[in-house]
Amino acid sequence: GQNMTRAEASQMFYALLLDQNVPHTVSFSDVPADAWYAEAVNTLASLGMVSGDPDGAFRPNDPITRAEFAAIAVRFDDSGLDPAGSFTDIAGHWARDEIRQAAALGWITGYADGSFRPNQSITRAEAVTMLNRVLQRLPETEKDLLSGMRTFSDCQSSDWFYLAIQEATNSHDYIRRSDGYESWDELLPDSDWSQYQ
Is the Cβ–Cβ distance between 144 and 164 less than 8 Å? Predict the structure, then answer.
């Protein structure tokens, strides 16, 4: 599927935590203790980075929305940057401030018509692109990549998400250039990011 579930997104963000050793103070009625995502969900919830419904459910298998994904991402931000960015369809939305914050950081963009579509399910390509921006992990052009990397038949160099997908699915060493972009140095054995593709 092209969508990402709330469980998968939690696992991605959990992998970014510098300290994963967090006492669990939160649990959910629909997150079994032995689920592959339980540690990630319960840890992020205990840190206040994800939340469930008022009835105590997390809905791990529901697609995560663009608003939900942006809201989790900005909880990693400590830049102190003021929220900016305005979209035509976020007035009154629960995540309005988080969406504007993510826009100010350059992590998210809207659509050509000025909308953000906060309640639309985020696609895997959009999620991976945002995560790479959060991590400041983006090559500038195809010239910054390496031959021999894994590619996908449904991901061509002309696609807007091509660089982001290559970035996320090929483990590599890189040199960070002075302009902030990275040039790949060496391909490394694969990590387990493949489960998100």
Answer: no
The residue among 82, 194, 177, 104 whose CA lies nearest residue 137 is 177
Whole-model pTM? 0.70
Among candidates 51, 5, 43, which has minimal Cα distance to 196? 5
Structure tokens at 130: 């945002």
Q: At 174, which helix (H) or strand (E)?
A: strand 172-176
Which two tokens mark 88?
A: 């035509």
How far apart CA 147 and CA 98 sit, in angstroms, is 38
* Gap between the Cα atoms of 76 and 180, Å rounded: 19
* pLDDT > 90: percent of the chain: 43
Place of tokens 């007035």: 91
Average pLDDT of the chain is 82
DSSP conformation letters of 103-140: HHTTS----TTS---TTSBPBHHHHHHHHHHHTT---S
